[in-house]
Amino acid sequence: MKITKIETLRTQEFFNVIWVRIHTDSGVVGLGETFYGAGAVEAHIHETLAIRLLGQNPLHIEALHKEMLNLPMAQSSTGAEYRAASAIDIALWDLFGKVCNQPVHQMLGGLCHDKIRVYNTCAGYNYVRSKNIKPVSNWQINKGQEGPYEDLDGFMNRADELALDLLEQGITAMKIWPFDPPAIENKGLFIDARQMKKSLEPFEKIRKAVGDKMDIMVEFHSLWNLPAAKEIARAIEPYAPRWYEDPIRMNSPQALAEYARSTPVWVCASETLGSRYPYKDMLERDAVHVVMVDLCWSGGLTEGRKIAALAETWHRPFAPHDCIGPVGFAAAVHCSFSQPNTLIQESVRAFYKGWYNELVTAVPRIENGYVFPMEGPGLGVELRDEVFEREDLTIRVSTPESL
Ligand SMILES: [Mg+2]
């Protein structure tokens, strides 16, 4: 079997999402995805990776992974080189599953769980849908698509009602980020008493409305310096949050270790890390309790399962990221099911009940607060026919002839 064509697809509307389709001489096609800086990813795939991949056996997944990431400029990161390789790697696993007529979770070792608990990341329909992704300005509350799950507006203004609504759907964990506005206002340097009080309001409302029936994950988007992050951590502790995610930039295991020592709350890190090496540095210093990975950024399923194994080696739980696109979500769910130490799967109901359905043929089944294994060969998702007919679609193709 040989790779005969590499195709990338992007739309203007979902500006940061890019899909890659790996075509083969047997007719089987693999689908992958990544998110952010789609133009840079597209260029890297066609200008640098295509020549290395065309004509190769797509089932030599480990070797191709090495081939893509052994470039001098592809140092451990979530940079364009890693995002491009991640999308292709996911497409190769999809292809592998299709060739063997098995779901990707089976190809990764088989089911470790019948169902996995999900938490709802309380984003709204238009979150991260802008070209210029910047904290707070990317919230886009009530701009564009509308529906009942404008959950970002929900946690900022009526967190009590939101918590009750989630519980009604059986969802017992929610992630919120009410500290982002003061972080942007003060450049992450400090928080004043008024801002602290305002940012704590959602926690107060949730605990008042639902007691301890709801786990609360707190996302900080790496916006704070270390002393401010520690001060905020102490202030939220009385509300018994489940974890603190990315309080500072994830470039200093020493600083994160200091943070982790300062609070009894679990530290979750980090979708912003690429490859297993920075995770090793964090784990060695006891800086992280919950290992979060975005498969579309950190090196695909090939790297993601190694990161999960690394976490298990340190007796830490694994929690795959989702807040980007529908193929990445499906890949995360397959990975979650195949790893023994999966704690919980991230999900965004405004996405999986909203725009994901415009783009792909299937989304993972989520019922009563749990996600169930995907069915069918490969990832079990394809781009919908409508995607190929969109006027805002750009397709770029590499073949042996075009090199
Ligand atoms: Mg996150």
UniProtKB/TrEMBL annotation:
Pfam family, any one: MR_MLE_N
Q: Which residues are in the Mandelate racemase/muconate lactonizing enzyme C-terminal domain?
A: 156-266
* Gene3D superfamilies from the UniProt entry: Enolase-like C-terminal domain, Enolase-like, N-terminal domain
The GO terms this record gives for MF are: lyase activity
| Range of residues in the leader sequence | none
What keywords were assigned to this record?
A: Lyase
Q: Is Transit peptide one of the keywords UniProt gives this record?
A: no
Q: Which InterPro entries match?
A: DgoD-like (IPR034593), Enolase-like_C_sf (IPR036849), Enolase-like_N (IPR029017), Enolase_C-like (IPR029065), Mandelate_racemase_C (IPR013342), Mandelate_racemase_N_dom (IPR013341)
- Domain of life assignment: Bacteria
| Protein name according to UniProt | L-alanine-DL-glutamate epimerase-like enolase superfamily enzyme
Tell me the organism.
Advenella incenata
